[in-house]
Amino acid sequence: MKEYAFYPGCSSQKGDSADNFLRSIDVVCKKLDIKLNEIPDWNCCGASIAYGEGGELPRLALGARNLALTEEKLPGQDMVSVCPACWLANRETVERLHQQPQLHTDVNLALAEAGLNYKGTAKPRHFIEVLVEDIGWESMKAPVVKSLEGIKIAGYVGCQTNRPFGMMGESFENPVYLDNMINMVGAEAVPYDQKVTCCGGALAFSEPDKAQKQIRDIVESAYDHGAEMIVTPCQLCQANVEVYQSEINKKQGTQFNMPVVYYTQLMSVAYGGSAKDAGLDGQVIKAAKLESIAMK
Amino acid sequence: MTTNTTAAYQNSFLREVEAHVEEGAWVKMCMQCGVCAGSCPFGPHWEHSPQKIFMMIRAGKREEVLRSDSMWMCTSCYNCLVRCPRKLPITHIMHGLAHYAHRLGLAPKGQPTRESARLFWNNCIKHGRINELKFTLALYFKDGLAQGIKNALAMQGIGLAMLKAKRLNPFAIFGGHQCKDKSGIQKIVAKARELEAKRQEQAA
Questions:
Q1: What CATH number was assigned to the domain covering residues A144-295?
Q2: How far apart are CA A80 and CA A106, in angstroms?
Q3: How far B58 CA sits from the closest chain A CA (Å)?
Q4: Hey, is the C-beta of B151 within 8 angstroms of any chain A C-beta?
Q5: Residue B7: band (very low, low, confident or very high) from pLDDT cuts 50, 70, 90
Q6: Domain-embedded: residue B125
Q7: Which of chain A's residues have a Cβ under 8 Å away from the Cβ of B79?
Q8: Of A45, A49, A77, A81, which residue is least crowded by CB atoms under 10 Å?
Q9: Which of B36, B72, B76, B183 would you mutate first to test chain A, the one with the most A CBs within 10 A?
Q10: Tens digits of per-residue pLDDT, A209-219?
């Protein structure tokens, strides 16, 4: 069994916007013998919008608290996130404090207020890195009992899973790990031109029209290239691209009804999990084809 | 005559940015190629692209830069950052400029992303974790009760769909998920703010 310190992030908590993501991750972990140990009392990373009010040092201190808790409570375990914004914030904190020792000193002065200290040993990683680098493609494929054959899927990587750090040294313009995961479970990854387009991110709230233009481009391209479903590794991409389709239909007369699921939901179904195990009851746009395979 | 000519080149705003803005020391490295401008998903909506902002900083256009709403159009997609041939951390510089303008009170009033960033951070520090329900409601109602009801009604379809999918918990209004050591988090942030203010003073 492989063990990791787990940083779930706010949106994956029960009853929050990516509640179903975590349920499908549980299935994947059980099948692949991965144990995720939740970091005790972890806090929000501040996400990509923390800079506005939080500035540099308070933002980095917020991130360093989670790193310090990992070092203290789960020593020696890599700190794994499933949310790209969390992963990015953690990596950025590590990088910045390593590059600027004065910031590291100041962050520790702030952490001392709560009896914490960040040494610089915690290693933030993304769950996909754990799957690909530690488990490996063959072992990931081994538990597949139901092929998702016949489903055409647009792999939507989005931004922060991909940039600025990237995964396994893959290209920023055309990463292929998500397509490989789609093909691994027997489905067909369709090529399309919006794989790494921004969905508007947190600005879907503050600049809805501008973000919905991005979302329209993504969904439209998926349809144009024959996809029946979009798959993503990101909570915010998932929510934005799925939930606003009805708004775009209302405002622009489109007829979008494209399911948007997580890669772990595909894996859960392929591993024999029920529709509920895979969190498919959490879709706003039903992933009917995936549900029918899960019920077989 | 000599003094006046050189005065134009003694750009105090570039130095101010270098001293006070997160990653601001990189600004002078920009070679004005425009890749950032062409890579930005919200490119058509900015008044000034990062390329222009950097040139304006070097030209000493303090007011225009800090009052611009361009930095607030950043979706944090990091396209500009990974494509910059000079490896400038453009996303971070944009965030740094936005925060600096906000702190000085020069950022555009009521700018929606500025407002949502403030609400998000306050929500996060209060509970230790984001309360998605309270954050959404705070956004809807930021311009008053009447506008809030209008916003909530306009979005009620989405709200109900999220409720049905169990991805929105109405009981989160009474507390929801939060950290145990909220006071520790607040102390950490207060101390970090104090240290940052001190650092800013020393740089002045």
A1: 3.40.50.11810
A2: 25
A3: 23
A4: no
A5: low
A6: yes
A7: 159, 163, 198
A8: A77
A9: B76
A10: 999 999 999 99
Examine the domain organization and report whether B67 and B23 are in the same domain: yes
User: Do A7 and A67 meet the contact criterion of CB atoms below 8 Å apart?
Assistant: no
Q: What per-residue confidence (pLDDT) applies to B10?
A: 61
Domain span at residue B25? 8-103
Q: Residue B3 falls within a domain, yes or no?
A: no
pLDDT in tens, A223-272: 999 999 999 999 999 999 999 999 999 999 999 999 999 999 999 999 99
Q: Is residue A40's pLDDT more than 50?
A: yes
Q: Tally C-beta pairs within 8 A across A and B.
A: 223
Q: How far is B20 from chain A (nearest CA, A)?
A: 11
The token pair at A236 is: 């915010």
ipTM: 0.95
Whether residue A279 contacts residue A16, with contact meaning beta carbons closer than 8 Å, is answered with no
- Pairwise CB contact (< 8 Å): B158 & A243: yes
**Looking at B68, B103, B138, which one is the last position of a domain?**
B103
**Are B96 and A56 inside 8 Å of each other by CB?**
yes
Chain B residues in contact with A57 by the CB 8 A cut-off are: 192-193, 195-196, 199
User: CA-CA distance, A111 to B138, in Å (whole number)?
Assistant: 29
Instruction: Decide if A159 and B75 are in contact by the 8 Å CB cutoff.
Output: yes
Percent share of chain B, pLDDT over 90 = 67
Measured at the CA of A291, the angle between CA A287 and CA A293, to 5 degrees, comes to 125
Q: Is the same domain home to B99 and B15?
A: yes
Whether A36 has a pLDDT exceeding 50, the answer reads: yes
Domain-terminating residue out of B103, B138, B155: B103
10 Å CB burial of residue A163 (0-12, 13-18, 19+) is buried
CATH of domain A2-128: 1.20.1050.140
| Contact residues, A window 78-117, toward B, CB-based 8 Å cutoff | 106-107, 109-116
CA angle A189, A193, A198 (to 5 degrees): 105
Amino acid symbol at A198 = C
Write the CATH number for B95. Answer: 1.10.1060.10
pLDDT at B1: 44
